[in-house]
Design goal:
Layout: H1 5-23, H2 29-51, H3 62-78, H4 83-86
Helix pairs in contact: 1-2, 1-3, 2-3
């Protein structure tokens, strides 16, 4: 197997998405499902590419952007910081 930076990042991103999908509280079923699907895809794709001994493979630039954005979105949803809830302003009794 050949483990380069792209393969390692893909597997780590997949694992992080899986953990977020399973462990974060207050996340909708739809968001959990997309997190798990994305995590499994990134994990499997990273391992598949690492197992190649010849040929070419392609890692799009979004592999660095989408997982980070997904994790930030899941964290915001889990802790009540989504746009629909943030529009109400401060609620600290003032």
């Amino acid at each position: 197997m050949h483990w380069g930076v792209y393969e390692v990042f893909s597997v780590i991103s997949g694992a992080v998405l899986l953990v977020c999908g399973f462990l974060l509280p207050n996340v909708t079923v739809k968001d959990r499902a997309w997190s798990v699907i994305g995590g499994v895809f990134l994990l499997v794709y990273g391992v598949h590419v690492a197992q190649q001994t010849s040929g070419t493979y392609y890692f799009p630039v979004v592999i660095f952007i989408v997982p980070a954005g997904a994790v930030l979105y899941l964290l915001a949803a889990a802790f009540g910081l989504t746009a629909s809830e943030a529009g109400g302003g401060r609620d600290d009794g003032e």
